[in-house]
Fold this sequence. Notes:
Elements: E1 9-14, E2 17-19, E3 25-30, E4 33-38, H1 48-57, E5 75-79, E6 98-100, H2 111-114, E7 116-118, H3 143-146, H4 164-172
Antiparallel strand pairs: 1-2, 1-5, 3-4, 6-7
Amino acid sequence: AKNNANHMLLSCELAGVKINCSELFTRVATDTGMCCALNVKDSLRESEYSALIKELQGETRIRKVESQEGRKNGLRLTLDLHSNKVSFGSLDQQYSAFNLFIGRPAQFPMMRDKSIQLQPGREHFVDLSATVVSTNGIRDILPEARECFFTDEGDLEFYKRYTFSNCRLECGI
């Protein structure tokens, strides 16, 4: 964030080194409005919707953040709950909390269903680990029989890649 007076992200540190937040985060559409995202991939097909989203995002130069082990090697953010001095607060809920969504880079962020709430005025540590499950051995089985799609199989109108949340969003539209 270049002008901290107008941004929720006050400061960012990556592995203990201060970095400009706008180099790491980009604006993305969610089910609750625009939010900041890290390591996001552009998964939208060319359309009026994608043109509108790109206009809302503005200029983006995104640096991918590689995962590293250890608390000192992670990403440290300082957020401002009340960065918008015109309104009574930066949040749209009656209670004070930030929402954190952890998902895949091409996944639509469903903040209402899948976000974690973080209390302001506190320090939070989020430690992530992953398990990779390979399913390529079932690719020859028809999607109807296996009851799931691979990311390149779902024929979505707005998104290049199939995910359950992307499909759910399109069905809602």
